[in-house]
């Protein structure tokens, strides 16, 4: 069964540890992330998401952004993270 994770509007330094904890709680199953509400993406949360994407890939599981706000996609790409699968999703 695929798990769902809805991201908050602000993914700043205060959200990095809770985001990590939320993702770790879902480890071992495919995950679809809803990024439609994201207005601001900070570097630490970007690192958490990239690390999760790589961890899920090593585990042979899917972790993807099902929806990404324009702000989420623009900020992800502004960090230069265009080589990662999460960044390649079209904005909602």
From TrEMBL:
Domain of life from the UniProt record: Bacteria
Pfam family, one: STAS_2
Domain MlaB-like STAS intervals: 5-80
Protein's UniProt name: Chemotaxis protein CheX
UniProt lineage: Bacteria, Pseudomonadati, Pseudomonadota, Alphaproteobacteria, Caulobacterales
């Amino acid at each position: 069964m695929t798990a769902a994770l809805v991201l908050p509007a602000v993914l700043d330094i205060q959200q990095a540890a809770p985001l990590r904890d939320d993702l770790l709680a879902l480890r071992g199953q495919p995950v679809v992330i809803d990024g439609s509400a994201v207005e601001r993406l900070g570097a630490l949360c970007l690192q958490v998401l990239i690390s999760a994407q790589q961890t899920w890939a090593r585990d042979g599981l899917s972790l993807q952004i099902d929806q990404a706000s324009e702000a989420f996609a623009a900020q992800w790409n502004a960090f230069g993270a265009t080589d990662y699968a999460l960044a390649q999703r079209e904005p909602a």
